[in-house]
Design brief:
6-stranded antiparallel sheet; mainly beta
Length: about 300
C-alpha cells in the first residue's frame, strides 16, 4: 500500500517517516512468520526504562476483534506494584516500524498530541490499527524483509517540576509606616545613621539619614534615603517597586516636609532617596518645628509595594 494512502487509515492517528531510530527501545523479531503460527494472542517485550518509569511493548501479531486485517502495537507501563495508591503517569509516546529498504522509521502517534494517562485501570495505550497486515507483509514496503522486522518506542513523561510566580501590587500595606526618632540630634557627628531594620511587604528596610548632607550637599542640606536591607537575597535582575512618602515631621504645627516618590529596588540599586531633602537653614529654624527637644523624626509611609512570591 502506498504510504500516502496509509496515512489516512485511522482518524486521529498520524504517520510519518524519519531517519532517527527510536530513542528508548527497539524490538527486533527474526523469522516473524513463525510467531503468528504459535497462536499467541500477544508478545510482550522485556522491560525497558524511560522517563523514570518501566515500560514494555505489547505486539499482537494476529488480528484482533477491534483490528481485523491489522497488526496492533501497544505501550504498557510495567512494574507498578510499588506505586502509591491512586498513581498516575502522563506520557506522550511514539511507536515505530522500520522500513528496511528506505532505512527510515515509520512513526505512528496520536494526531491530537494529548498526553495519555496511565493508571491502575488503564496501563497500556497504543494502536489497534498500526498497519494493515497486507501492507506489513508486502516486502516491497520494506517492513518485513527476509522474515525480519523491527518495532520501537519513544516516550516523553510529563513531570511537573516547575515553579510559578505571583506578583501583587499592594496598596497601603499593613505596618507600612515607620518612624525613625533621632534623639540628641545636635550631637550627631557621624556622616550618616541607619535606623533599625523594619519589615514591609515581606522585605527588610532601613532609613538612612545624613544629618549634615552627603557628597556635594555636605553642610548644605539634610539627606534621607530608603535602604533595602536584604537586597542580597534578591535573584539577579529581580526588582521591587515602591511608591512612598518620605517626610520629616513638624512636631509643633504638623506642617510636615514630605516628598512622594517611586523606585524599583534591586541588588544593583538597593538605596534611593534625596541628597537635598531640606536645607539645613530650614531644618534648624525653630519656628518650623522639625527639631524639638533636640529630637528629629523621619518617617516613611509605603503607599504601594510589589510583593513577589515563588511557588514550586
Amino acid at each position: 500500500m502506498p504510504f500516502s494512502a496509509m496515512e489516512n487509515q485511522n482518524i486521529g492517528v498520524t504517520r510519518s517517516k524519519r531517519d532517527l531510530p527510536p530513542a528508548h527501545f527497539s524490538l527486533k523479531i527474526q523469522t516473524y512468520s513463525l510467531l503468528p503460527k504459535t497462536e499467541v494472542e500477544k508478545y510482550d517485550s522485556g522491560v525497558f526504562e524511560a522517563g523514570g518509569h518501566k515500560w514494555r511493548l505489547s505486539l499482537h501479531p494476529n488480528e484482533t476483534e477491534e483490528g481485523i486485517g491489522y497488526i496492533s502495537l501497544y505501550l504498557a507501563i510495567a512494574e507498578t506494584d510499588t506505586y502509591p495508591e491512586g498513581w498516575e503517569v502522563y506520557a506522550d509516546y511514539k511507536l515505530f516500524l522500520l522500513d528496511h529498504l528506505q532505512k527510515k522509521y515509520l512513526t505512528v502517534q496520536d494526531a491530537d498530541g494529548d498526553m495519555k494517562r496511565f493508571h491502575k485501570e488503564k496501563t497500556e495505550w497504543g494502536f489497534t490499527k498500526l498497519l494493515t497486515l497486507e501492507a506489513f507483509k508486502n516486502s516491497s514496503n520494506g517492513y518485513l524483509v527476509d522474515d525480519c522486522c523491527e518495532f520501537g518506542a519513544e516516550i516523553f513523561v510529563y513531570s511537573r517540576n516547575s515553579e510559578w510566580e505571583s506578583l501583587a501590587m499592594v496598596k497601603e500595606p499593613s505596618d507600612g509606616t515607620f518612624r525613625y526618632e533621632m534623639e540628641n540630634f545636635s550631637a550627631k557627628a557621624q556622616p550618616s545613621y541607619y535606623s533599625k531594620v523594619f519589615t514591609v511587604g515581606e522585605r527588610n528596610w532601613k532609613l538612612r539619614v545624613w544629618p549634615k548632607g552627603n557628597t556635594a550637599q555636605r553642610d548644605k542640606a539634610i539627606s534621607i534615603y530608603l535602604n533595602l536591607d536584604d537586597w542580597k537575597s534578591l535573584p539577579p535582575k529581580r526588582a521591587l517597586y515602591v511608591k512612598y512618602k518620605l517626610r520629616i515631621l513638624d512636631q509643633v504645627s504638623g506642617k510636615h516636609e514630605q516628598i512622594t516618590g517611586t523606585h524599583w529596588f534591586s541588588s544593583s540599586s538597593s538605596e534611593w532617596g534625596y541628597p537635598i531633602f531640606m536645607t539645613l537653614d530650614k531644618l534648624h529654624q525653630d519656628s518650623n518645628g522639625f527639631i524639638k527637644d533636640n529630637k528629629l523624626i523621619a518617617e516613611i509611609e509605603f503607599l504601594t509595594i510589589s510583593v513577589i512570591k515563588v511557588y514550586s
